[in-house]
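Can't paste images in this forum, so I'm doing it all in text. The chain is below; anyone willing to post the predicted structure tokens underneath?
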Amino acid sequence: MPTVKNFLFPALLFFFVFSLVAQVSAQTIESNQISATISPEQPGPQEKVTISLVSFAINLDRSSITWTLDGKKSLSGAGEKKFSFTTGVVGETSRVSVSIVSPSGEVIPKSFSITPEELTLIWEAPDSYTPPFYKGKALPSSQGSIKIVAMPNIKSGGVITKPENLLYKWRRNDKAAQDASGFGKNTFSIRNSITDIFEKIEVTVTSADGSISALSGITISIVNPQVAFYENRPLEGVYYESVLPGNFVLDNEEIKINAEPYYFSSTNKNKLDFAFSWLVGGKETVSDKSDPSAISLRIERGASGSSNISLSVKNAKKILQEATANLTVKFGTI
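Text version of the structure:
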């Protein structure tokens, strides 16, 4: 019997120590053991925001979770791991707090302050050619230039911060653009490479003290140049209101056709940058000497049939800027 007592005492002591350690361990869960994700990471004004909780330390599904927005309880219940709300105007801070009561009764608080800022990116293709009176946007083609401008609306202490007092960090296709970044550098000019079919641009704008930041991004597609045909009327000039269809019926004995290249890198189609090669009925044809982008057709009286017109336009300075277009002109009684 004495031998049994000697074994029993250490066993009881071990159980007591183990229980004590287990209780102490259960009480060491801290706020940093519960992570949170905010989506979007840098929300704008009047935008829906969702905060999600994740933890490997406690079972959040069995925890009682209470969310408070600007001092008012907004959501409470078991397993309420997500909370959504809408931000206010630019510079208005929303304060969110959450209280998590674990299954063991432990209370873990967390808090968030979210201040929406506004950052808009606009862009243009300054050397992309479009014809007169074109109402659309000039688009960039391969080897074309693009200019991006960041327009921040950031408030500090209720006062809008001047763009020149902000730090701009630009990224192009997921790579930092160090030379374009810096204080007051709210414009970013690039030239598209031969291989890229789009340009992914991002910029992070930060206040001088780093307390306020905003992020914005844009993806710009690179297009292929195009050519469109227009009728050049004797009294009205080029009729830009309507593109000639692929099959065109000629009602008169003569017509002058103008070709307009779209999205080539040139601000003037009559520059030596462009080379126009016309084919009529499969044969090379001389264009209008004063305007290589135009061609005149004359039909003999009483003739009928059709004529196929083909045009190739190339940019002599940009090897990948090329476009072709075809037109079938029908005349007489067919």
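Helices lie at 2-26. The two ends are 124 Å apart (CA to CA).
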